[in-house]
Design a protein that fits this description.
One of its GO terms (molecular function) is protein kinase activity. The protein has 656 residues and is an alpha/beta fold. The chain has 18 helices and 23 strands. The radius of gyration is 28 Å and the shape is globular. The structure holds adenosine-5'-triphosphate.
Length: 656
Amino acid sequence: EPTQDKQALLAFLSQVPHANRLWWNASTSACSWVGVECDPTLSYVYSLRLPGVGLMGPVPAGTLGRLTQLRVLSLRSNRLSGELPSDLSNLTLLRNVYLQDNALSGGFPTSLTQLERLVRLDLSSNNFTGPIPFALNNLTLLTGLFLQDNQFSGDIPGINPGGGGLEAFNVSNNRLNGSIPPSLSKFPTSAFAGNLQLCGSPLPPCSPFFISPAPSPSVIPNPPIVAQKKSKKLKTGLIIAIAVGAALIGFLLLVFLIVCLRRRSGRRPAKVPKLTGSAAAAAAGTSGAAAAGHLSELGTTSSSKDDVTGGGLMEAERNKLVFFEGGVYSFDLEDLLRASAEVLGKGSTGTSYKAVLEEGTTVVVKRLKDVAVGKKEFETQMGVLGKVGHVGKKEFETQMGVLGKVGHDNVVPLRAFYFSKDEKLLVYDYLQAGSLCALLHGSRGSGRTPLDWNNRLRIAIGAARGLAHLHDSCKVVHGNIKSSNILLGPDQSGRVSDVGLNPLFGTAAMPNRVAGYRAPEVVETRKASFKSDVYSFGVLLLELLTGKSPNQASLGDEGIDLPRWVQSVVREEWTAEVFDVDLMRYQNIEEEMVQLLQIAMSCVAIVPDQRPNMDEVVRKMEEISRGETTDEGLRQSSDDPSKGSDGQTPTVGVTP
Ligand SMILES: Nc1ncnc2c1ncn2[C@@H]1O[C@H](COP(=O)(O)OP(=O)(O)OP(=O)(O)O)[C@@H](O)[C@H]1O
């Protein structure tokens, strides 16, 4: 029995408010407590894993810092805040530290840079600020460093943690700028996305013009050495030559703009697409920022081949925006390209933009990447979804035809599409309430209102109905069910989006597309089916129930394969442990949660034939929701957290 470690753990728990789910009993060995693992001789605590148990507030000094033999510390997905105590530097044997998804703040915890045995450090999705320290170079064994979704600022120092052995690295969505050190250029662009002004491989190269006029010394404290040296070498003559060159280019651009604008005003009534919107935007003095600007500037289209001026009427006909019958919009491609646009997100199939047209209409434009088909195939695909693999324009258009006719309240309607050799655009309604993913996992920390049980159930039933309609009435496989593809309608119902794009990408794009939602057989067959949709939907239900994100990317040491995790917990008869801590505050919902858990587990059966069809899933889910209503038609308890819950959930036989 590790007496000293036990005292440290009890001190920690007594000082940190938490959801009452740990039941650490002071009279039993700490080695038997939930989340605690000891060494084989039971003489010290080896690992402490307390993910998602509702820990709140700061980590107190003099508690965890006393667990000097600790190898693994996981406090992720809680609501811990404030700075980490400096005595964590005592934990010199720590190998894995997972503190992601909290509200921790302050500068980079220097105590952690002293833990020379660290192999994996995850501080992502917190509120850390200030620079990334050079002292990370102390961590010579590091293989994974995750700092994304914080507010780290300044430039990235010349770090090479792990002595070159770093395998995973992410600093996206911070406030970093300056050039990327060569030691980190092997990581993908996504590892650096969403920062202020980073440059250099794998991002576009740093230009001396970009770096030298730093917005303020505090923003770029250390301009990259290479750039400094280069700029010193710029001789006066060269500077003059560049200035003259720039003036000349500016003059030519002006002439070009004037010509374009004149042509446009003469041709406007013909309502033909003309893909020179960026020029118009430039004339209006707007900037081409990466995250917001005019749609035409965001890289959506620029091919001069598509410009009607060079191609005549046939070309114009071929490149028009095709609307579906019964639609509510009346704008043309030119209007769309002039719309102001903002990046909503980058997914596996392309990038989505929120576009606000000049007349005030807001739509979502999805710019598809790497479509494996020509126009004929694209069009055909819109009509015979599922029958074609690599498709051309015809298939694309046919597929669009099918998708455009789906017509169901629980499916986000596709309103129009555009196909040219270089660009494939899809136009959808904009749903401002956002996605289930954002509601479940977004803005953790202070001020967040968790999604209550009634809403979770309603959204899930809506999504199930939408998917069942796709399967039964349209014979369409969705192929990419996940929480960011379940959007909320104005009535807060769940709606399925991103429908049926699979066949446009061939099999090459499949492996990484659906990450933790992917059915096991899809790994081999690379082919989505009705039953693989059911599996993905089951994972989605588990996500709703557990509040955990099925994130394949971080699978390795700590990522969660939700079906397997739930199965292991349920097998040990800890059903209550499975549920999202945010749901534990509602009363009288345990029975319904267990029922939904049973449905979810039947959906994630390994053998596809053992999974139910979506119409069965809908029926069973509707049975739960019928039991949910009271005489007034609304169940009271779920929305009233003040009533609390004892957290005791019946361990009803859930067969994995
Ligand atoms: N019609 C819409 N209205 C509002 N938000 C949307 C709409 N369509 C997509 N979004 C949001 O925009 C973001 C990007 O969506 P997108 O579909 O491009 O990527 P994804 O869902 O993350 O991945 P994938 O491409 O694999 O579906 C997501 O957060 C999504 O919820």
